[in-house]
C-alpha cells in the first residue's frame, strides 16, 4: 500500500527552484518568452471561461453591487427625491409668481383707471354648494377691511360681490350666479339694463344675459357693457367692465331686449382679484374699458389688450 | 482516477478564483483565497510530493491567468510550499474538522504573509508594511470564513474517489515520520 514515490524533498526543491527561476525570468525588464507564452496560453484558455462567467454572473454581480450600495442608495434616493420636490415646487412657485404679478398689474391698471381702491386677494377655492352656486373664497376678510356687498374685480372686469366676510376669508358670489343681477349700462349710450347670471341655466349658452329696459334699444354684437353702479357703491361700483355682447336675442314683442354676454373677467380661472373697498369719487363712465378693438367686434377686450 | 479528479477540482477552483472571486467588488479590496483551500484540501489527502506538485501547478495557473499583475512564480512557490508543508505536517497529528480548518487557516495566513514577504523581497512598490498589515489578516480571515465551502465538498469528493486514503485510517503518531519513510509518499 505505502510505497516510496519520488522523494518529496527533491520534488519540493525542484519546484521551488522552478518557481524562483520563473520569478527571476519574469521579473527582469522586458518580456520573457517563456512566461509570455504561458500567459498567452492562459489568457486564451481563460477568455471563454471568463466570458461565460461574466455572462452568467452579471445578474449576481449587479445584485451584489446594488446590495453593497443599498444603504447609501436609499439615502441618495431620498435626497434626490427631496431635491426634486423642492425644485419643482420652486419652479411652480416661480411660474405662479409670474402669472400673479401679471394679473396684479392688470388689476392695478384697472383700479387706477376707475379710481377704485382695492384690496388684492387670492381666489382660494371655487366652490359651488351642490353645484348650483357660483362662489369663490378669497383669502382676505374683515381684518383686511372687507365687508359684505363690496365689489370684486379682476384685471379685466367684474367678478362679483362679497356676500360674506369672516375674519380672514370672504365669500364672493360671481355675477354669473343664477341669483345675481347687476345693474348695467351700455358703453357709450345711456341705455341701462341688468345682467343676470345664467351659469347653470338649462338652456345656458352664455354665462350671463343682458336685459335692457327699453325694447327698442339699439344693441349689436360686440357692444360692451359696464356696471351702472349702486347706491353708495354697494354692492357694485360704477364703471367696471362686465362683458361683451355675443348674441342678440330676437324677441319681437317683448318688453325688453335681451342679449347674451361674455364676461370680461375670466371667471373660470380666477387668481388675483381685488375687493373694491372704496368706490371712485365720481363715475368713471367708460374710461375703465380698454380701447375698443377695430374690426372684429366680437373679440373680448382683454384678449386684445394682451 | 484520483489524479484526474484532483486536477479537475483544482482547475475548477482556480478558475472560480480568477473568474469570480477576483472580480467581486469586495469592499476591502482583497478577497478570499480559494486556491490555498483547494491545495490544502488536496494536500490533506496526498503525499508531500503530490501536494507540492499540485500546489505548484495551481500557483502557476494563478500566476499566469489574466488579472495577475505580479511575476510568474510567486504563487507557484507559495502554493508549492503550502501543499508540501500541509501534507507533510498537517496530516499526521490526528484528524477532525477543527484540525482540517485550522490547518487550512494556517496555510491561508502563511500564504498571504508569504505573498507580502515575497513582494517586499522582490521590491514590489505596492507591498508596504501598512498595506500588508491590513491585507494579510483580512485575506486570511475571509479565506477561513469561506473555508467550509471549499474544504467540505472537496474533502467529500476526494474521499469518494479514494476511500482508502490515509485520513481516517491514520494512526495517531506522536511525531512526523522522516522523509522518505513510509508515510510521506506519493499516492497516485
Descriptors:
heterodimer, A: 306 residues, alpha+beta, Thrombin, subunit H, 6-stranded antiparallel barrel, 6-stranded antiparallel β-barrel, 12 strands, 35% helix, 25% strand, disordered C terminus, B: 188 residues, mainly alpha, Arp2/3 complex 21 kDa subunit ARPC3, 6 helices, 64% helix
CATH superfamily of the largest domain in chain A: Rod shape-determining protein MreC, domain 1
Q: Assign the CATH class of the largest domain in chain A.
A: Mainly Beta
Low-confidence spans of chain A: 295-306
For the record, the CATH architecture of chain B stands as: Orthogonal Bundle
Radius of gyration of chain A: 41 Å
Number of β-strand runs of chain B: 0
CATH class of chain B: Mainly Alpha
Overall average pLDDT of chain A? 80
Helix content of chain B: 55-70%
The major β-sheet of chain A equals:
6 strands, antiparallel, barrel
N-to-C terminal Cα separation of chain B, in Å? Answer: 9 Å
Count of beta strands of chain A = 12
The major beta sheet of chain B can be summarized as: none
Can you walk through the features of this model?
The complex is a heterodimer of chains A (306) and B (188). By secondary structure, chain A is an alpha+beta fold. Chain A folds into 2 domains: 8-26 and 35-65, no CATH class; 95-305, Rod shape-determining protein MreC, domain 1 (Thrombin, subunit H, Beta Barrel). Chain A is built from 4 helices and 12 strands. Mean pLDDT of chain A is 80; it is low at 295-306. With 188 residues, chain B is mainly α. In chain B, 64% of the residues lie in helices and 0% in strands. Chain B has 6 helices and no strands. In chain B, α1 packs antiparallel against α6, α2 runs parallel beside α4 and α3 (48-64) runs antiparallel to α4. Chain B is globular, with a radius of gyration of 16 Å. The chains are: A alpha+beta (306), B mainly alpha (188). The interface between A and B is large, with 39 and 47 residues.
Amino acid at each position: 500500500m505505502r510505497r516510496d514515490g519520488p522523494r518529496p524533498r527533491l520534488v519540493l526543491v525542484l519546484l521551488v527552484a522552478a518557481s524562483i527561476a520563473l520569478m527571476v525570468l519574469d521579473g527582469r525588464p522586458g518580456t520573457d518568452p517563456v512566461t509570455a507564452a504561458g500567459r498567452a496560453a492562459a489568457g486564451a484558455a481563460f477568455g471563454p471561461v471568463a466570458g461565460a462567467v461574466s455572462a452568467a454572473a452579471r445578474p449576481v454581480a449587479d445584485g451584489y453591487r446594488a446590495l453593497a450600495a443599498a444603504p447609501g442608495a436609499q439615502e441618495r434616493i431620498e435626497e434626490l427625491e427631496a431635491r426634486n420636490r423642492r425644485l419643482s415646487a420652486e419652479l411652480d412657485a416661480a411660474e405662479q409668481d409670474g402669472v400673479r404679478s401679471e394679473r396684479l398689474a392688470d388689476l392695478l391698471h384697472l383700479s387706477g383707471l376707475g379710481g377704485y381702491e382695492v384690496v388684492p386677494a387670492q381666489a382660494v377655492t371655487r366652490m359651488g354648494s351642490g353645484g348650483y352656486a357660483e362662489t369663490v373664497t378669497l383669502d382676505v376678510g374683515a381684518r383686511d377691511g372687507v365687508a359684505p356687498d363690496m365689489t370684486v374685480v379682476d384685471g379685466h372686469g367684474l367678478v362679483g360681490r362679497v356676500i360674506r366676510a369672516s375674519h380672514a376669508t370672504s365669500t364672493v358670489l360671481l355675477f354669473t350666479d343664477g341669483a345675481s343681477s347687476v345693474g348695467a349700462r351700455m358703453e357709450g349710450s345711456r341705455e341701462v339694463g341688468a345682467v343676470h347670471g345664467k351659469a347653470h341655466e338649462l338652456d345656458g349658452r352664455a354665462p350671463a344675459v343682458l336685459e335692457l329696459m327699453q325694447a327698442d334699444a339699439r344693441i349689436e354684437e360686440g357692444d360692451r357693457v359696464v356696471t351702472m353702479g349702486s347706491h353708495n357703491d354697494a354692492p357694485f361700483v360704477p364703471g367696471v367692465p362686465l362683458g361683451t355682447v355675443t348674441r342678440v336675442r330676437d324677441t319681437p314683442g317683448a318688453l325688453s331686449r335681451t342679449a347674451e354676454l361674455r364676461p370680461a373677467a375670466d371667471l373660470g380661472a380666477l387668481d388675483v382679484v381685488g375687493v373694491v373697498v372704496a368706490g371712485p369719487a365720481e363715475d368713471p363712465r367708460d374710461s375703465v374699458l380698454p380701447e375698443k378693438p377695430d374690426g372684429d367686434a366680437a373679440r373680448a377686450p382683454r384678449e386684445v389688450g394682451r | 482516477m484520483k489524479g484526474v479528479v484532483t486536477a479537475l477540482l483544482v482547475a475548477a477552483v482556480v478558475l472560480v478564483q480568477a473568474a469570480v472571486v477576483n472580480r467581486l467588488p469586495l469592499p476591502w479590496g482583497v478577497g478570499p483565497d480559494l486556491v490555498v483551500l483547494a491545495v490544502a484540501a488536496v494536500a490533506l489527502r496526498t503525499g508531500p510530493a503530490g501536494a507540492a506538485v499540485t500546489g505548484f501547478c495551481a500557483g502557476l495557473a494563478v500566476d499566469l491567468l489574466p488579472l495577475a499583475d505580479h511575476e510568474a512564480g510567486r504563487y507557484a512557490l507559495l502554493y508549492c510550499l503550502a501543499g508540501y508543508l500541509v501534507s507533510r505536517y498537517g496530516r499526521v497529528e490526528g484528524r477532525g474538522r477543527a484540525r482540517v480548518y485550522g490547518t487550512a487557516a494556517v496555510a491561508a495566513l502563511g500564504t498571504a504573509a508569504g505573498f507580502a514577504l515575497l513582494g517586499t523581497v522582490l521590491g514590489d512598490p505596492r507591498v508596504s508594511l501598512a498595506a500588508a498589515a491590513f491585507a494579510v489578516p483580512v485575506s486570511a480571515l475571509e479565506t477561513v470564513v469561506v473555508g467550509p465551502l471549499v474544504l467540505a465538498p472537496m474533502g467529500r469528493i476526494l474521499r469518494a474517489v479514494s476511500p482508502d486514503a490515509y485520513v481516517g485510517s491514520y494512526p495517531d503518531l506522536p511525531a512526523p515520520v522522516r522523509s522518505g519513510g513510509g508515510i510521506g509518499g506519493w499516492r497516485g
